Amino acid sequence: MTDILLSLKGLTKAYPGVVANNNVSFDIGVGEVHALLGENGAGKSTLVKMIYGLVKPDSGTMTLRGQAFTPSEPRAARADGIAMVFQHFSLFDALNVAENIALGMENPPAMRDLAMRIREVSENYGLPLDPYKTVGGLSAGERQRVEIIRCLLQDPKLLIMDEPTSVLTPQEVDILFETLRKLSSEGTAILYISHKLEEIRSLCDHATVLRLGENVGECTPADTTAREMAELMVGTELLTPERSGRDFGEVALDISGLSADAPSDFGTSLKNVHMTVRKGEVFGIGGVAGNGQDELLGVLSGETTTQADAVRLHGGPVGNLGPTARRKLGLLTAPEERLGHAAAPDMSLTENAMLTGSAREGLESNGFLKWGLAKDFADKIIKAFDVRTPGPENAARSLSGGNLQKFVIGREVLQHPEVLVVNQPTWGVDAAAAASIRQALLDLAANGAAVICISQDLDELMEISDNFAALNEGRLSAPRPTAELNVEEIGLMMGGAHGMEVSHV
Amino acid sequence: MDLSAINPVLLVASLMVAATPILLAAIGELVVEKAGILNLGVEGMMIIGAICGFAVAVQTDSSTLGFLAAAIGGAVLSLLFVILTQVALANQVASGLALTLFGLGLSALLGQSFVGLKPPPTPELNIPFLSDIPVLGPILFSHDPVLYLGIAIVAGVWAALKFTRAGLILRAVGENHDAAHALGYKVIRIRIMAILFGGACAGLGGAYISLVRVPLWTEGMTAGVGWIALALVVFGSWKPWRVLLGAYLFGGVTVVQLNLQAAGVAIPVEYLAMSPYLITIVVLVILSKDKSSAPASLGRIFHASH
After folding, report:
1. Cβ–Cβ gap A103/B178 under 8 Å
2. Spatial CA neighbour of B161 closest among B172, B174, B149, B171
3. Residue B170 lies in a domain
């Protein structure tokens, strides 16, 4: 790349107790697809927030097309041609597509003209969208389209994408990459943040690696292996989980003919789900977010009760039992949402350990709590799963996402479950921590427990699961041995690109 | 019992008068809640509006200035709510309840020397030709200007929320304040303006009670109307026209039960007195069955963490 679009020099930003970015410098060329790599907490988000004007750097300079660039707010950044697609979609569920897009524009045209332009641009880039649909009812892939179209209507010079593919099917990822390549060929630079190294290898021209807020290296992804990049991010050698050969025992969990209504308006109801998991087996459930994962977890954990016979544990009916009764019988769950579902944000780690561990670990007697034992249990989790925190008296909220995830999964694993259900066990967790969580799940299975892993990360499911089934609009496909599957087939099991074909011109 | 003493035309005309205080307070609260704020201090802001309006109207002998003072009074009290919830990030429910208690106490103090006085009359619109139409004239064309203002505010709020960019931004802030902030909208500033508007509307509603409906001042004279207004917003599914419908329903049942009492119906007065509350709530619960949803950020504290 010859022309430099944006140049960052010595950017530094410190928060109380932590330096998020320390003297970071790199250049992005016109039309370049530039990857930004790093573990959780490496400072990627802070860096892009500075470029987008949400955060002011303590020191350092940015230069845009040779001019000093100091955006005071996102509005100013947008006016200079910087657009951003957020990791957690910044959309308004109750508003329609056109209204959502109008909110992201400085001077939106009248709704009718805007709707026409949305149709035009979205079809031009192969991302068809209906401007009058309510966003709350859209799939994750469609929601992301809304964000991208919102950016494209501004005619951006630099498009920042924060983990855009974590919620897409492989086919949707292909469509997205087509779009990004087209944009890049038209001269739009793209700053691309992702954990998925293979994607970066196929898409990006150049990569900058951050570790603990510092720029620790640059590379050309196409010439570097995913492993090398991962080790650059982590700073040490990476261990891949090992799957030891093991035999499956008798049936641990059996679900037959399960149907359940969605608990919320925007939820998905489960339709006639069948599933059998044996001891020692890791059963992977894939699918795009919002196809019934949360509802399935609710049915398994006991948050949603069903007919007693629909869910059987070791042959005994448990469908009508609540979570605590199921825990006593050995069916444990770790939900996806760390803050608020798996853990109570403002309670200490000891209290959180007490919340799910009391029944199986004997942390209470006659209604009185044994705080000493609970603290020991929390300490044990922290030690066994390398949770980085000053101690168990800290609030769950104070832990970084990856650390809390290790705690939440560790808490269940250490209770010696007979059946463990996890949803998105490594969501937002960096490579090293993800590997250790996966290893723990495999070890658990090797010791005779049945593990059900619901995940949107296909690589993860391919790596750890023995059998794979996909959720699509509340229906579970027939399971197939993972060893026989490739990513293409899995994508089709997940429902393809949700009927939205590429319409590139 | 003599039901023939009830004049249907007068009944409808007085129904509109009875509904206006609730309507004003509710439409203000609707805007506040659409911005994602739950202000339970409506009752407090109404009673402050009632005494401010009454006092200024008596002193200046002008009901127009009275209503103006009421709007300002309600907005000033809501400023306290702004400081508590938007600056100090206090809990909205507790702050709202505190506002109501504080408003009731302060109004009693301010009103001590005004008990027993009569306010200047609020002139009724007398459109030469229209007001003389037999049935329609008294119902539609011979009220005071504030009643029409209330309906105009409902129409204005509806149109603003539906058709204008400002309305869209307000709804966006109430729907997802983090996303609105990420897009660069001034969440706190927008909410403060909404709260002040809600305070002014509640103040107007309060003054309508003390200057038009029951033209005199007594302590605690809003008598729970603010709470009904709050319920109306919820049961009206945050839709302006449905709030208007609910207010007229409540006003209607209130007027009918007063008329029935006067006509000597053989039902204990207590049942009649509680009927407007019951009927309004039952009807609105049925209406609100289609869950056209509360603003998603309603009542949540916004803290810009970036």
Report:
1. no
2. B171
3. yes
